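Please check the following for our workbook:

***
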Amino acid sequence: MKQRKDQEILVYDDFTQAGKKALEWGIFLSKNLKKQLFILHVINENSPNSGEYGKDKFSNANNRLEKLCTEIEQEHQVKVAYAYEEGCTCTIINSNAEKRDSLFVIAAIHGLNEIQYLSGKSLIKIVRKARIPYLVLHKESPAPELGKSFLFPISMQKEMKQKVGWATFFAFRMKIDIELFLPKEREDIANNLQFAKKFFSSYELDYKEIFTNTSQFKINTEAIKYADTSRVLMMCVITTLNVSLIDRIIGLPESRLCSNSKRLPILLVNPRKDLYVPCV
């Protein structure tokens, strides 16, 4: 029987401060989850130019990535592989994730005034085509070592079970607590809450319930306000399944969540029938 390759965490590095933040989290999570690291760089018109690449963009990208991987392996004892491609970021990240059977993707977004780089809006378009989650950071997100809990807003979404699987994976592997953030409509979420609590209990995970007077339709936004980045590692969000006309005009809510003022990392789970859910 062919042995299954150990899955990697894919980190998108654009050679900027955002890329450094994604690498910081990638190293931390690869050590704690005992997974290998795969660093991907995309060469296109948004890539750093003079002084970064020089005339031979492929050779220079290769040399930079090779040096980076060597430093990570020596300093952190993490197995690292890398690749670089020229083309569109919107297709290259997902194609590499599929080809390499990555566990999830880590990417960091830039500010609104840095439109030449990956923004929350552009990243959401990539996530919506993926069958694995994206951990979305900001270049100013807190250090991962601070996180001690997994923030889990609950609504009546039928895709909630997919969130439960990923919350269980992170909480169980990293030995952190789960904070169930609940809306005021308790009856509407009763089934999802019961399922989540039963599932978490089956793995002996510690969780607590945070009761609010918030509507379930605003639960994610209120959870961000509640979140203490000195305690919460990340928050899990299901991407919008049915995009409305208003969503198309003002943008998807998860795009605004990823650009939250607290720079809290957001684990985006894209609801699909072929969504990958890890074995705990």
About this structure: The longest strand covers residues 36-43. Residues 144-269 form a domain with the Rossmann fold fold (CATH 3.40.50.620). The mean pLDDT is 87. Residues 57-76 form the longest helix (20 residues).
